[in-house]
Design a protein that fits this description.
With about 575 residues, the chain is α+β, with helices and mostly antiparallel strands. It is built from 7 helices and 36 strands. The strands form 10 sheets. It has a 6-stranded mixed beta sheet with strand order 15-16-19-20-22-21. It has a 5-stranded mixed beta sheet with strand order 14-11-10-23-24, covered by helices on one side. The chain starts with about 30 loop residues before the first strand and ends in a 13-residue tail after the last strand.
């Protein structure tokens, strides 16, 4: 996370005093001119951004050190004074240019890799390859929490998640779908283990799709902070050294995509950390400056990619972005765009939250996508803690709207979006922890109580893990007649999944009993779902930006732990 003073757009930091790379004196050495532009004495970050085809400088490109912003002049030259804490100088890649990739890893390389020394003039040039046409339509892959702690975790990510992404994109692109693909991880790439940084970088490298490489951008999570370091700034060093800045942006088509660190480490102990969620004042000012450079916001789409959810916020703790950590201010900035989406990880279960009080210029509220984890329940099985499959999500962007999206389970077809249960079933495993939909159950070595819902007796119970409160319709269709199903209003855990974690996976904490609201139910006409014939559950999703609909159907009951796999 960035921490220090920030200047506004097109200004230079004038901070003095000691910093990691200097003592407050001006830079030594001189560069008098770059590409026809006179370099002003005292500016320590300078360089040329040029077009690879023409060799000419590119005007108007935003450049930042993570604190201040400037833009390149008519000659493609940038110059400003480095903030005392800056570690990279980097740019917002314009929509009409390719994302530059590192030669060896093919990961995005939009930042300087040489050490920034604020006591001298640092020249870093960038060359951008123009696109043949702006990608008005593109695809964004959102990957929540790989969270690899051990070699076996990394191997599962390498052998399960990565090939599934690659195979899904290759198959779709052969049919003209999911073109112009980009990916972003949403934090917790590692799990409090610095040993896994290099293997994870290697695993995400050189991911070829068709004749090109999939650029994987990265966001930092709480478990990516190094608790052995003395403070929040230093705790991000492992990430920065390998993957670049923690707060940055890039443009594709009519979309502005921002990635930010929303983990504020308060203390480190050498082994663990305590943190709040949100943004520092300096980060908020950086974001405000970044967004101020976006032209014609009312016809633009914005993504904000972070780790910890915003949702309905709270005043303290790390569960939600805190009200006093610029929660409202950031939402207000996003609402200036035609359409806004917040992309989140952290929870290890999917949850969609509609910020109904923050309506964008296109008339739609800000939509927050909390993604399930690629690792699910920390690689303990093939399930997240709510029962959603391990996986990732795919977003199709058309112009300035998110045209469609799907939650993609690893090694599952895209049509797999729900499970149907018999509300009368009892889930009892080898450890004899018994659970029912109506009464719940008690399990684990702490006798953890899980609460059921009495009205689920004699019901079809459906979990739709990517649903929301407004844009889904779930129906029981029997002999051609559709009966609407009701969404639970109180939080409920998946009794089958909880039983699986306690009885089969040997889990014994409340971590494995997450209660949510993505459950739907309706009474079986006969009073017993098992006796019903000629039925199908139909789930219809309406995409709020495009009004496109996706219809998913299944006529199969989940049977005990079928399809669940413990590690």
């Amino acid at each position: 996370m960035t921490a220090a003073l920030l200047c506004g757009v097109a200004c230079s930091s004038s901070d003095g005093g000691d910093g990691p790379n200097g003592n407050g004196d001006g830079p030594t050495g001189t560069i008098d001119e770059i590409n026809g532009t006179k370099i002003i004495a005292g500016n320590s970050l300078v360089g040329l951004i040029s077009d690879a085809d023409t060799g000419k400088g590119i005007a108007g490109v935003p450049v930042t050190d993570g604190y201040a912003f400037t833009t390149t002049d008519a000659n493609g030259v940038y110059q400003f004074k480095a903030n005392r804490y800056c570690r990279n100088v980097y740019l917002t890649v314009p929509a009409n240019y390719e994302i530059p990739l590192a030669p060896t890893t093919k990961l995005p390389l939009f930042y300087s890799t040489s050490t920034i020394d604020r006591n001298k003039v640092n020249r870093n040039d960038f060359t951008l390859k123009p696109l043949s046409a702006i990608e008005e339509n593109f695809t964004l892959i959102a990957i929540g929490d790989p969270q690899c702690k051990t070699d076996s975790d990394v191997k599962r990510f390498e052998k399960e998640t990565i090939p599934d992404i690659k195979n899904t994109l290759n198959a779709a692109q052969a049919k003209g779908k999911y073109m112009n693909a980009y990916a972003v991880t949403l934090g917790d790439i590692t799990f409090d283990n610095i040993v896994q940084w290099d293997p994870m970088v290697k695993t995400m490298s050189n991911l070829q799709v068709g004749s090109s490489y999939l650029p994987i951008f990265n966001c930092i999570g709480n478990h990516d902070h190094d608790a052995a370091k003395a403070n929040d700034y230093l705790a991000t060093s492992n990430f920065v050294e390998r993957l670049g800045p923690t707060d940055y942006s890039f443009d594709r088509g009519k979309a502005h995509i921002v990635v930010m660190d929303d983990v504020v480490c308060k203390t480190t102990s050498g082994k663990t950390w305590d943190y709040d969620a949100g943004f520092s004042k300096e980060q908020y000012e950086w974001l405000k400056a970044d967004l101020s450079l976006v032209v014609n916001k009312t016809d633009k789409l914005v993504f904000l990619c972070c780790h910890i959810p915003f949702r309905n916020s709270s005043t303290s703790g790390g569960a939600n972005v805190n009200q006093d950590k610029h929660y409202k201010e950031v939402l207000n900035l996003l609402a200036e765009f035609k359409e806004a989406h917040i992309m989140i990880g952290h929870t290890h279960y999917p949850q969609n939250y509609i910020h109904s009080t923050r309506v964008c210029q296109g008339g739609k509220p800000i939509y927050e996508h909390v993604h399930g984890a690629a690792c699910g329940g920390w690689w303990s099985s093939n399930l997240n803690v709510d029962g959603a499959p391990n996986g990732y999500s795919i977003y199709e962007i058309t112009g300035s709207t998110v045209d469609n999206w799907v939650a993609k389970g690893t090694n599952l077809p895209e049509t797999t979006q729900m499970r149907v249960y018999n509300g009368n079933d009892v889930y009892k495993g080898s450890k004899n922890y018994s659970y029912t939909w109506t009464g719940g159950g008690t399990g684990g070595n702490a006798n953890i109580k899980v609460t059921g819902l009495s009205e689920l007796a004699n019901c079809f119970v459906v979990t739709v893990w990517n649903d929301d409160s407004e844009n889904w319709k779930i129906e029981l269709v029997q002999n051609g007649v559709a009966t609407p199903m009701k969404r639970v209003t109180s939080s409920l855990a998946d009794m089958c999944v909880v039983s699986f974690f306690f009885n089969v996976c040997n889990k014994n904490t409340t971590t494995w009993t997450k209660a949510l609201q993505h459950y739907w139910y309706v009474k079986a006409p006969s009073g017993n779902p098992a006796n019903e014939q000629n039925w199908v559950v139909r789930a219809t999703q309406t995409i709020p930006g495009s009004n496109k609909t996706n219809v998913y159907e299944t006529s199969v009951f989940q049977t005990d732990f079928a399809g669940f796999a413990a590690s």
